[in-house]
Structure formats: C-alpha cells, structure tokens
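seq as requested:
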Amino acid sequence: MSARYTMTALLLCSCAIIFTPSLTTITASVAGDLNSSSNVNTVVPAVGMNALVVMPAQHMTNAATVDTGSSIVLPKMVAAAPRTTPEQSYRDVAPGENPFAPLAQKAATIATPATTSSVATAPAGNPFATTATDNKDTATGKAKAATPEKVDETALRYYAKTRDLKRLGAELRRLKALYPSWEASEDLFNQTTAIDEQPLWDIYAAGDLTRLRAEIARIASGNPEWKPSADLMEKVQTAESRKLIDRAYARANWAQVISTAQQQPQLLVCGEMNAMWQVGEALAKKRDMARAFDLYKYVLTNCDQPSERLATMQKASALLPAAGITSLMALGRTLPDGTAEFASFTYDAIRKQMGAVSEGDPMALPLSGTELESFATYVETSQSAADASLFGWYYYSQKQWQPAQAWFTTATQYGSDLKNVEGVILSLRNLGKMDEAYALAGRFADKSDDIRKEYIEIVAGALTDEQSALKISDNDLPAFKTYLYAAKSALGAQALGWKLFRDKGPAEARPLFAQSIDWEPTEGGVIGLAVVASRTKNKVELAALKQRYGGQFERLKDFSTATAAPKKGRRVVKVMEVSAKPAPSKFNRIPSLKWAYSREYAR
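struct tokens:
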C-alpha cells in the first residue's frame, strides 16, 4: 500500500497542472470591465515544462501567447470530493452525528442512521443545557414555556399589599384551580415599595456592572422589602459570566471558560454566539472533541444567521479532526441558488496545500491535476476572489508567470483587493511586459503603498538601465518624485539623482543623493554623493563621506576630486547601484532589482 501510494505521488508530481483563467488586461478600476462568460475549461499542453495549461474557453482567443505543441483537448469536468478521510476510529457514523461520542452511543447511531435531510433539520441539544434551560429560545435564551390564559391578579395583589394572608391564600388556591399552569409572581410582596428600575437599566446598558451591583445594594439597604426584577438580575448574571469567559479566553484559561459555561448555560444560545465560539474552542483545546462537536452541531441545527453559521464552520474546521468536519458538513443547508451552504469547505485541504507551496514549504507537494481542475471549476462558479488570488500566488511561487497573471486578473474581477493588482504587476514584470506593468502601477500607485513601491522600482530601473525598453517621459518625472518622497524611497531618490546628474549636472543631482542617504544610507546613495563631490571638487564633503562611510563602503577609497575632463587612456570607474531588496510579504517575493549606471570621471 505504501509503495503504491509513493508511485501515485510521483506520477501526480510529474503531471502538475496549471490553470490559467483570464488573460485580459486590467482596466481603470480594480474590477474593471473584464469580460467573463463560459465556465468551460480548456487544456493546452505547455512546452518547456512537464505540465498542462488549463484556460477557460472564453480566453482561448489569447491562446496564441502560449507556445503549444499539440491540439487542444477538452477534459470532462469531474465533481469535487472531500479531500480529507476520517480517521479509522471515527469512520462508522452517520452524517451529522458525533464521531467522537463513546462507543455505545456511536453503536446506537450506526444502527439507526439519519438521512441527510433529517440531519439538517433535527434539533441538537446544547451540551451544557440542563432540563431547565433546554426549553429556552435559541435566539434569545428566554424561556419558551407555554403562556397561560390571562389571569386577573387584582385581588391577589391587593391582599398581598394589605398583608391579608388568609384571603391571600384563598385567592391563590382559587386561581391555581382555575389555571393549573399558572404561577404567582415572585415580586408579589415587593409592590409596596415603589422603586423605579429605569436608572438601573440605564447603568446596565452602559455596561458598568460594578456600578450596577453597588447601586442595587444601596437601594436594597434603604428598602429591605425591595428586590430587583428577575429579568434584570438574569441579564446582570449573564453579562458578568460573559466577561468572565472573555477574560479567561484571553488568558487561554480553557478550564475556566468551560466551568463558567457550565455554571451559566443560558449563555450558550444563538444570541450569544461569541461565547459559543469561545467555549467550543476551549473544549477542543482541552481535547474534549465530543462536546466540542455537540456545541458546533447545536449552532448549525438551531441558529439561522448565515454569516454566523459560516463562521462556526470555519472555526470548527480549524479545531476538530477531519471526521468531525466531514460530519458537520452534512448539516449545511441548500442556498437559494441551489448550491450547498458549506461547499467551500470541501476544498480547505487543497487551499492549505496550495498556501504551503506558495510559501515555499519544502515538504509541500504540488497538487494533482484532478484536484486543481476541480478547485478551479469551483472558483469560477463561486467567483471567490480569495481563491482566485490563491491560484495566482500558487503559480507565482513556481515562476509560472503567465497563469499567475491570468489568475490575479481574474481575482480583480471578483473582488477589490489591491493585493491582486500588485500580483498582476509582479507577473507582468517577470514576463518582461514592462510597459503594461508601468501603466498599471501608475494607475494604482496612489491607492496602495505596495503598488507605489512597485511603481518606484519600475521607474528606477528604466531611468538607470540604458538598455531598458521602457522609456520614461520627462512629463512623468514630477509624479515619480511625488511618490518617491511619499514613500521615502532611497532607491527612487538615487534613480532620479542619476537622471538629473546626466541631464542637468551634479548640482541638480546632489539633493536627491543626500536625501537618499538621509532616508537609508545605502551604498548607492553614498557613491552617488561621492561622484557629485568629486565632480564639483568639494573636498570637504568627499572627506566627510570617506570618514563616515569608508569602513562600510570600500569603493569610497578610490574617489578623489576631479581636476580635468576625462581623456583617452585615463582610468574609468563604473558605478554600480544595487537597490535594497523589498521586504517580502506572505506570498510576494520580489527578486532584487539590480541596475547600473556608468559614468566616467577623472582621478
């Protein structure tokens, strides 16, 4: 079995598949007016790599950009299957049932398996609820006891007020005979003290529970017969327990989180979702998977807020073993568009593996063609910007620039995250499409710090590389200067300094090199200022530079002030400027931008 698995893994690795959606250029907005139509994928064998390029059919008009070596093949799309396999010891449970329950309970479950529809609708019990709290409304936590017929308590309250206990008892017996389910109010004898509770409710609304407790004690000390209403005290106790759980959760004191929930089970209702999530995590961290599963199941079978249900599934997927996630997925509902509520979680394992590959994890293997094809179909159907972006970084990490650009472009159609625009720019640069990268970076440079850095790097490279195909107009320099000052870019200041040095002379260039050193004392800025000092015969400045940076930048020792224009046969010194490497983001690893500018000067 192990040998067969190893052989299968090797075969899959040799057939990694590249999914390339959109190749359309981004327009002025992030989403732009990129067209999307058919969801049919087309497979194109790629030359130069043991892989396949998969493009949606609507983009095959651009397929000429891919060097194909054979005809187009249209594969049959296959439905996705959950990637994870439940552990052997959890396998034999019906969908929606607890795979972590004791063996006797699981045996009973297996004997009477529930259908998917019944699982989705059957209510689940709160794992902390007592008999008294089982009958509470899941949305508010208030008791759902049947409301009795309207009872006239006028006489009863009169006898209680006058302390006529004999008649009070007779009235109680009479009302109880007429209305067996009726219960007398707890505050029957408190009506003689007229206390306005509104100030107490105002303090409660402000969240100052310490002050509220003190105020209740103060009023009670002056009115021995008064008691605050049961509704107020229940809410105070719930709020206090909520704070206890918050503090314990912040300290990762899982035992206290659980014990507080056990003492106040009224907190574990749909109206207290954050407390439910905290307790569920505490149970999972304490390895009590059975009760953690029951709590998540309680939410999915009793609570209706879509965002909370989705968040519950996300939290459960990060904490429970695969068997629990597989079982909980059966509790998903059918959405109005006919899709499954938790279809996205089918691909969680694929997402994690793609993320690991993107981050350069040496233990992460590329995904199989079937997995990527299935996931790509889901992404096109769900139009998930995050998933399309994940495809982009996945291919970018493997230096597959064309599919990376296409997936980043598609992600901009699905959402407005400017990180995807940055991905398009990075891919275009690596494809050598500097004109397109420059235009796109300039369009969004004022909307994102990262894109602004990209723009500065692109312009800096063009200004200092005489072989660059990208030509920067003098009309674009004011905008470039604005951006480099906003970013405090030493690289940008050096590039503009060399541009001014060449076009207008050392006097114009000097402030840019000095500013570059002020922001970041790199070799490029120091050498640039040394060249200016040499040309302008500023011995004092050159000496100061050598004294301050001579031990750091060895090339400074070759500098002296110029005395005449260079002549034939005189020594020529080439100045090489290398930019600082940008700090890498989670997926973004920009190669160091190296550029050179040669300038002759006399020794």
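The chain has three domains: 11-84+339-431, 88-137+237-338, 433-603.
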